[in-house]
Write a structure and sequence with these properties.
By secondary structure, the protein is an alpha/beta fold. It has a single domain (26-110, 121-128, 136-184), classed as Rossmann fold. Helix content is 25%, strand content 27%. It has four helices and seven strands; from the N terminus they run αβαβαββαβββ. A hairpin with a 2-residue loop joins strand 6 (166-174) and strand 7. It is globular.
Length: 187
């Protein structure tokens, strides 16, 4: 797996080994970032990123490569956390990130970042009910900035009810994967 664009373009990143980790394919990651840049006109050096269910950290690492202001990685799997730290070290990233080993509905972030997350990536294990719980947790704890975008990767056809405070913006499908783009509109 490689970084697609930005400062670290072409640099290899490792993925944790195990059946519980499902790295996002490069073509899907590229599609997501193209949509974020060309449809939503995001400028990464102005963004605070949350990579929830981070796995290898590919979404957060791609965001760092594109110049994100700060990136927060959250995963509850020890091997994923080790992998993220190895990937950050391999790229030579030394600041503007936080790595948190925690469940998606229990993590805490630095008080200075509360209400500042402009873009969140959620890529939970397929066929779980973790998406709605994670969205509610982020809302209840004030992590998201008003109008923040949330990108959710889920199995194509997996039922999903939008949580109050979010609105549907866009959706794309790639094979067995669907990607939803939601807007946080609460507060």
């Amino acid at each position: 797996m490689k970084i697609l664009s930005g400062k670290y373009k072409g640099k290899e990143i490792k993925s944790p080994i195990g059946r519980n980790v499902r790295p996002t394919l490069a073509r899907i990651r590229e599609s997501i970032f193209n949509i974020l840049i060309h449809r939503f006109h995001l400028v990464f050096n102005e963004l605070i990123i949350l990579d929830l269910f981070a796995g290898s950290g590919s979404f957060g690492l791609e965001s760092i490569s594109r110049g994100s202001d700060h990136t927060i990685f959250v995963d509850n799997n020890v091997s994923s956390i080790k992998c993220i730290n190895v990937n950050l070290a391999r790229l030579g990233v030394v600041d503007n990130f936080t790595v948190i080993e925690s469940d998606a509905v229990e993590f805490g972030i630095n008080k200075n970042l509360l209400g500042q997350v402009n873009l969140a990536f959620l890529d939970p294990p397929y066929s779980t009910n973790l998406i709605a719980d994670s969205l509610l947790y982020m809302c209840q704890n004030g992590y998201l900035q008003r109008d923040a975008l949330v990108v959710i990767e889920l199995a194509r056809g997996q039922p999903f009810d939008i949580v109050e405070g979010f609105s549907w913006e866009h959706e794309v499908s790639h094979g067995k994967t669907s990607v939803l783009f939601l807007r946080y509109a609460s507060n």
